Amino acid sequence: MHARPVVGPLLRVRGLLVSNVFLLDGGSGDRWIIDSGHVLERPLLLAGLRRSGFLPGEVSGVLLTHRHSDHAGNAAFLRRTFGLRVFAHRADAEVLEGRQRAPRLEPSSGDPIAWAFAQIENHTRTTVPVDVALAGGEQIGSLEVHHAPGHTEGSVLYRHVGTRSLLSGDALLAAVPPLTVAQRMTLPHPDYAVDLDQALASLRALHAAALDYDNLLAGHGRPILGEARRLAEDLLASASR
Questions:
Q1: Residue of 11, 162, 146 lying closest to 65 (CA atoms)
Q2: CA distance 56 to 152
Q3: What are 30's strand-pairing partners?
Q4: What would you report as the CA-atom Rg of the chain, rounded to the nearest whole angstrom?
């Protein structure tokens, strides 16, 4: 099996090294690919979908957490090849559809690896027509959409209420960037955020609004099952001191 069950109907495609792709197998009309991975890992993604039984004709669409190339890299291919609808926040859709230029990432940490990854993103043009532009607040199948700008202008979180799980993209991480070898929850990385202060403010606002969850399925790192909200609140409290 090329997708590992995480919790309930949520699965994680196995073998991907750059970023996570999750699957939601909620039955007819509620089968989603959440993020699409980096273009260099397309063969692994396709193998994972095929061996997980995610037949193109049965998939409801591709849900993007944000526009960066390691998350949206295969969205245009999946749309073109299989006719899958692509969903993204309208702010990121402006960039993905080429109507607006992505702001350059300007790393300030001094980490040479983070700098190199930022330059790759700056020189990578990820384009895809967005079929459904999200605003935040929508219900898509069994998922809630929550806008959390800061990492990108249109970063979103998807909450699966039935399993108390949050699919966070890079708005909240489960491994330490840039190499993501160390596995633990971390806040958005300053070198990759359009506006770090806004990213943190978005997370604080969502938690203040009682966004309830136990499990974190992030764009990088192994899923954190249990007490994820408490860990996030502790990190946010530390960041404010």
A1: 146
A2: 29
A3: none
A4: 16
Q: What's the number of CA atoms in the CB half-sphere (13 Å) around residue 150?
A: 23
For residue 54, how many C-alpha atoms fall within 13 Å in the half-sphere facing its CB? 32
Domain spanning 3-102+113-239, CATH class: alpha beta
Between CA 176 and CA 189 the distance in angstroms is 8
For the stretch 148-177, pLDDT in tens is 999 999 999 999 999 999 999 999 999 999
3-state secondary structure of 121: helix
Model confidence at 147, pLDDT cuts 50, 70, 90, reads: very high
Q: Say if residues 64 and 45 touch (Cβ distance below 8 Å).
A: no
Q: Label residue 4 by pLDDT band (50, 70, 90).
A: confident
Q: How many alpha carbons fall within 13 Å on the CB side of residue 203?
A: 28
Other beta carbons within 10 angstroms of residue 135's beta carbon come to 12
Report whether 33 contacts 56 (CB < 8 A): no
Closest CA to 173 of 182, 184, 162: 184
Please, which residues have CB within 8 angstroms of residue 201's CB and are 6 or more apart in sequence? 150
Residue 122 makes CB contacts below 8 A (sequence gap 6+) with 104, 105
Give the distance, in angstroms, between the CA of residue 129 and the centroid of all CA atoms in the same chain: 18
Model-level pTM greater than 0.90? yes
Name the residue ranges covered by the structural domains of the chain. Answer: 3-102+113-239
**How many whole angstroms separate alpha carbon 155 and alpha carbon 149?**
5
Q: How many CB atoms lie within 10 A of CB 173?
A: 23
